[in-house]
Every structure is written in structure tokens, then in C-alpha cells.
């Protein structure tokens, strides 16, 4: 397979006085070249920490304790980002030079002290040997490209003069400044109103198609997943519980958690307004992970004495298709291991 990014057995733990919080506890996933992979799960499942681990942006007292993060850019030697010092020159080159990240709060990510144009020019000049005028021209081109009207005027605007949606477009322009091979978007639409959300998702989809970059898109919103994903990774309490193509996940989900998540979204166009079913119980805190299958207290299919006793196997159902659940133990494909 032609994976630009391949994460294998990643564990990122937070060391607090009470002990280790296993926020990410054995995550394996990959991002093929030119594809969009969505990581979906409720808050606290470790999806953001997984993303931040890739870029060496895990906050104290967190630390990668195991696993590999293979970055395979075209024409370069594969490099294991998990083995790099987050502050090293090499990691700095990857971060913002080859992999860009867009976050949830566009207002907070932009400085109120400088114009959006100045911040964009700074990002461009960090990566490209352009003089001020050339950088300004490229900046205006990028603002136009992310759908900002009258970009010559907006170049001189401050973030507080722009709407949340416009700020997120500026952040996306900044992320594109270095022509990244991979864009990591962590809940980029969550803070926006519904109409703006849809426009930003459309924009990201267009940009992905135009540039051929890969996208790792983190969200809790299955509607967004359906729109943008080629492949889906479902996370629960620090582990990947299911992986598959977007059609497989939506039309043939295997894991009880995925089924429950899908059952909780209202069906569109069904004529009547359907009641939202929610998954019973709450997500436990990662420091309080249930024994056995971490989903067992909320699982309608749980087998007493089995699911609460041992961690379920990660069953390979086909290429790029896995489910971590005892119910599928006998559905193993002939593949011997998870291929990343
Ligand atoms: Fe449910 Fe058991 Fe499967 Fe966990 S292993 S998802 S508890 S059936
Ligand atoms: Mg998050």
C-alpha cells in the first residue's frame, strides 16, 4: 500500500500524580497518499492526542511511550516521527513544512495584533525564499483560493474584523502556505455555525482534490465523515475499534460502538423527525478504563465473563478493515496481521 503516514501501536500517556492516563493506548492507522482519512469518536477518545503526537505537539505531562509514526514523503527516506525529539530541527521541518495542522478555534489561532496578511506572509516566508512583494502576491492568491472575497482588502484586516468562518479560511490558507503533503484538521468546523461548517467542509474537499494532498480529518460528527472521508477510523477510549472504507463503515458497520454511533444520528429526509437514540451511559475517563473491552459497560452485545475479562482481539476482516470485538473473532480474513 502507498501510505504517506503509517501509525503503528502508538501509545501516548499522561503522567500525573495519580498515575498514567492512557489517552492513546495502541493506535494503528494509516493515511494513503491523496486520500482523506477521518478519525471519529466522542470527546476524550484520544483522537486529538493522536494527531498531536504525529507533530510532536503533545503537551506536558504527556509523552509518546511506544509505537511508530512512519512519515513517507515522496522522494525522501521514511522517518519515524515518534523517534524524533519534538524540538529537533528535523521535526520542525516536517511540522509546518510537510505536514500542516488546522485547529478547532480559528480566532484563538490567529493573533489579534497583526493583520491576517502579515501572518500569512510570515508563514509563506518561513518556507519559501520569496521577498515581501512576492510573498504578498502569494498570500493574496491563497486567500482567493480559500474563497475569501476581495482578498486584497482582507489582507489588511485583523482577525476580530472577520467572521469565524472567514478566520477558519485564513487558517486553512496559512496551512496551505507550504504546500503540505498532509493536512491534519482537528475539528476544524466544530466552532462554526452549520451553514459555515458545510462550506468549510466543501472547501477542504475541493482543496484536497486540487492539490492531491492527504488529509487526516478529526471529528465527532458523522455527517461530516460521510461527506469528506475515503476511509474511517473509529476510536473509543484511546484505541481504534474499527477501520474501513467510508461505505463499509456506514453500510456494514461491524463494531457495536460504530453501530451505536450510527444509530445516534437522525436519518435525513425520512419525512418524520426521528428521535435521537443516544448511547447509554457515559464515556469513562481514560484514567478509569474498564477492564476487558473498554466498551463493555455500554455495549448491548457484551458477553458476561468474556468482554469484561479480557481485551478483545483486533480482528482483521480484510485489507484496511478491522474490528476490535470478540463477536468477529471467527470472521478473520486470511490476512495475518494489520497491514499499515
Ligand atoms: Fe461489545 Fe464484547 Fe465486542 Fe466489546 S468485545 S464491543 S463488549 S461484544
Ligand atoms: Mg479534541
UniProtKB/TrEMBL annotation:
PROSITE patterns: ABC_TRANSPORTER_1, ABC_TRANSPORTER_2. It is a peripheral membrane protein. Keywords: ATP-binding, Cell inner membrane, Cell membrane, Membrane, Nucleotide-binding, Translocase, Transport. CDD domains: ABC_NikE_OppD_transporters. It holds the Pfam family oligo_HPY. InterPro entries: AAA+_ATPase, ABC_Ni/Peptide_Import, ABC_transporter-like_ATP-bd, ABC_transporter-like_CS, Oligopep_ABC_C, P-loop_NTPase. The keyword NADP does not apply. It is found in: Cell membrane. Its main location: membrane. GO terms for molecular function: ATP binding; ATP hydrolysis activity. The keyword Signal does not apply. GO terms for biological process: peptide transport. Belongs to the ABC transporter superfamily. NCBIfam families: oligo_HPY (TIGR01727). This is ATP-binding cassette domain-containing protein.
Amino acid at each position: 500500500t502507498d501510505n504517506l503516514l503509517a501509525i503503528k501501536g502508538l501509545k501516548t500517556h499522561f503522567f500525573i500524580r495519580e498515575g498514567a492516563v492512557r489517552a492513546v493506548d495502541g493506535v494503528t492507522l494509516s493515511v494513503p497518499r491523496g486520500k482523506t482519512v477521518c478519525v471519529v469518536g466522542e470527546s476524550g477518545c484520544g483522537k486529538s492526542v493522536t494527531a498531536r503526537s504525529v507533530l510532536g505537539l503533545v503537551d506536558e505531562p504527556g509523552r509518546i511511550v511506544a509505537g511508530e509514526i512512519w512519515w513517507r514523503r515522496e522522494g525522501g527516506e521514511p522517518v519515524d516521527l515518534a523517534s524524533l525529539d519534538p524540538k529537533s530541527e528535523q521535526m520542525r521541518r516536517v511540522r509546518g513544512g510537510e505536514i500542516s495542522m488546522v485547529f478547532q478555534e480559528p480566532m484563538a489561532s490567529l493573533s489579534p495584533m497583526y493583520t491576517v496578511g502579515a501572518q500569512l506572509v510570515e508563514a509563506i516566508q518561513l518556507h519559501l525564499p520569496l521577498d515581501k512583494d512576492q510573498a504578498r502576491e502569494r498570500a493574496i492568491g491563497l486567500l482567493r483560493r480559500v474563497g475569501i472575497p476581495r482578498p486584497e482588502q482582507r489582507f489588511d484586516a485583523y482577525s476580530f474584523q472577520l467572521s469565524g468562518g472567514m478566520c477558519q479560511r485564513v487558517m486553512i490558507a496559512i496551512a496551505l502556505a507550504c504546500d503540505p503533503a498532509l493536512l491534519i484538521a482537528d475539528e476544524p468546523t466544530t466552532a462554526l455555525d452549520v451553514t459555515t461548517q458545510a462550506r468549510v467542509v466543501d472547501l477542504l474537499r475541493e482543496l484536497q482534490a486540487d492539490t492531491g494532498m492527504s488529509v487526516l480529518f478529526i471529528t465527532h460528527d458523522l455527517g461530516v465523515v460521510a461527506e469528506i472521508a475515503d476511509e474511517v477510523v473509529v476510536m473509543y477510549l484511546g484505541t481504534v475499534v474499527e477501520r474501513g472504507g467510508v461505505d463499509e463503515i456506514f453500510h456494514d458497520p461491524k463494531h457495536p460502538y460504530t453501530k451505536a454511533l450510527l444509530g445516534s444520528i437522525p436519518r435525513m429526509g425520512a419525512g418524520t423527525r426521528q428521535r435521537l437514540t443516544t448511547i447509554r451511559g457515559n464515556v469513562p475517563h481514560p484514567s478509569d478504563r474498564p477492564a476487558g473491552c473498554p466498551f463493555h459497560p455500554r455495549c448491548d452485545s457484551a458477553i458476561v465473563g468474556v468482554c469484561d475479562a479480557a481485551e478483545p482481539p483486533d480482528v482483521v476482516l480484510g485489507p484496511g478493515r478491522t474490528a476490535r470485538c470478540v463477536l468477529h473473532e471467527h470472521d478473520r480474513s486470511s490476512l495475518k496481521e494489520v497491514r499499515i
